[in-house]
Design a protein that fits this description.
alpha/beta, Rossmann fold, Hypothetical Protein, Haloacid Dehalogenase-like Hydrolase, Chain: A, domain 2, 38% helix
């Protein structure tokens, strides 16, 4: 495959892409990213649905300090915390969605900037999120919080996928004009401002750096990466991706996330 435009930005998903199944960054991925950034001058964006402090831990572990998206594109910021672009959900809409979710016994997370919040009594989900995101949130009264706070993103969680599916159905029926929602796993439903995704985050970074779509390589593995892949000139799917995600990619790695597929893509297309 021959490239016509030089790659100036690499957008990389985290789970099952950048990291292995143990949530660790393989040594070869780190080495390749540092080579691309500091030997070839390519900007690196860790593009994740995770909260900003969680994204930063991976950036610090690797050793990069570029601008980056968080919360699936709801916030794009520089390494020093300066916000480039931000999107939020109206607090009244967020409260209604929270109430529907609670009626279905879902854990309802509210994300705002560097913090996440959960209703009292949701210790199980709080512990789970703390481990996954490497950040500590707050158990609070979300009805009080949403009286003044507009969350950037909402996450609903339930161990029975039928509950998150039912919530998705109700949210789409009532609020599709102001929010988008999608499953990031059978147990998790993500709810974001209308039209905001990992792809719009790439567009914001392109404006920030003064580059075009054809200068971007995006590497992902799952359905919530599709917008990011489509927003790049060189979409790369991991070997461990579902077949219909692979179908939209221009290149599919031979190695999966446990065998440094990100490094494979970098060395193949960065010169």
């Amino acid at each position: 495959m021959q490239m016509t435009c030089p790659i100036k930005l690499i957008s990389i998903d985290v789970d099952f892409t950048l990291v292995n199944d143990d949530k660790k960054v393989p040594k070869e991925n780190r080495k390749a990213i540092l080579w691309a950034r500091y030997q070839r001058g390519v900007h690196i964006a860790i593009n994740s649905g995770r909260i900003a402090p969680s994204v930063r831990t991976y950036m610090e572990e690797i050793g990069i300090d570029d601008a980056y998206p968080s919360l699936g594109g709801c916030i794009v910021q520089k390494a020093d915390g300066t916000i480039i672009e931000e999107h939020s959900i109206d607090n009244r809409v967020a409260l209604e969605i929270r109430n529907i979710g609670r009626s279905l016994d879902c854990g309802m997370f509210m994300y705002h900037h560097d913090n996440w919040f959960l209703d009292h009594g949701m210790e199980y989900w709080a512990d789970s999120e703390a481990k996954a995101s490497r950040t500590k949130g707050s158990l609070t009264d979300l009805e009080v919080l949403l009286g003044t706070t507009k969350p950037n993103k909402i996450l609903a969680a339930h161990l029975n996928p039928d509950n998150t599916t039912e919530l998705e159905k109700q949210v789409k029926a009532r609020f599709s004009d102001v929010v988008d929602c999608f499953k990031s796993s059978p147990w998790y439903l993500e709810i974001v401002p209308k039209g905001v995704n990992k792809g719009t985050a790439i567009q914001a970074l392109c404006r920030h750096y003064g580059i075009g779509k054809d200068n971007v390589m995006a590497i992902g593995d799952y359905y919530n990466d599709v917008d990011m892949l489509n927003a790049s000139g060189l979409p790369v799917a991991m070997a461990n991706s579902p077949s219909d995600v692979k179908d939209i990619a221009k290149y599919v790695t031979e190695a999966d996330n446990n065998h440094s597929g990100v490094a494979e893509a970098i060395y193949k297309f960065i010169f």
